Amino acid sequence: MAVDDAERQISDLRTLLEVSRQLGAVTELMPLLKHIEQAALTILDCERVTVFLYDPNDDELYSKVATGAADIRFSAKLGIAGEAARTRERVVVNDAYADPRFNREVDRKTGFHTRNLLTVPMTGHDGRIVGVLQILNKKSGDFTPADEERAITLALLAGVAVHRQILIDEYTEKQRLQRDLYIAREIQQASLPRRDPKVDGFDIAGWNCPADETGGDCFDFMRLSGDRLAMMVADATGHGIGPALIVSECRAFVRAMASVTDDLGLIMSRVNKLISEDLPGGRFVTTFFGVLDAVAGQIHYCSAGHGPMLLVRGATGDAWEFEANMVPLGVLDDVEPKPASAVTLGPGDIFVITTDGFFEWPDPAGERFGVQRVVDVIRQQKNGRMVDLIAAIRQAVTAFAAGVRQPDDLTIVAVKRL
User: Fold this and answer.
1) What number does CATH give the domain 2-169?
2) How far apart are CA 181 and CA 22, in angstroms?
């Protein structure tokens, strides 16, 4: 008898060593779980094996592999598997239907009759629970202490392997998302103007910097007939891939409408209608759309919730703030066309449109950069080029933030009459 036991132990050890080798070689989660299932069926001589994984976000256990059964998901606070996960201890039940913790509903749904079961927690290399290994119906009698030791050893090997594979899968998915976001950023940045426009008698520059890989801000320039230049600054709520898609759609709608009508109020009204049909609840886009008439020295504009727009006189340094003249796009389904507002630029005057990422960037104490600091920089740089003005504003807000991470997208367009 002792010889038989020794041979069995040697056989089990060889099997576990082979399992360990196989678990180390598998590089996908489902094949890995299948290896665990087959190993448990062989080593523990049982009818069925279920491998439950733990979902820490919902505090649930769910089966990815269950011999002859469909997927199962339930709270980790329930049942025998839940107890093993919570206590990090093995649970042996030699008469399932006599144990009040046993969930008979699974047997009812699957048609399987559970006699006895051995449940062992699986933990990762850091000791955190990653799942539960449940062995059902030993083919010959009850589970023995030797069975329990075999199951614990297998669960230890499986737990580390599963944890490793989950981390690899998470890393792979993160890398895939990073590649996708990089491509999205490249596409979005390519849609921005590649160079600042040249208009006789004016110096014009624009700049954009998203807070994430992609952003919810954009700016645009469009040549129109009669030596006119259309300009746009838009800011969708939030930042990231979702707002980036929204603001790109807004830009496309504005461009399309501007190609068929010069009525700025009508353009914004119809774009609002189109945007409203696509925006999810609670989302909107603030949008400045203006047209520079170089001959008259005027900018006619409609601003849908986008403000303040800043005007600094070149001769005196006096500053004005202009507020929006209509609600943000997407707030209301229908908006009546509003007449465009106008600002006249004299020699040396500077008109600046920014998104609120500049004004709202805080320092370590929580104080925001604010509008006045932007105005102060414009005054200091009013005799220089607009590209240098934008660089100075960027430098000023970054220095003010003193290491606080950029919380929102930054976009700015500056126009100076020479």
Assistant:
1) 3.30.450.40
2) 35
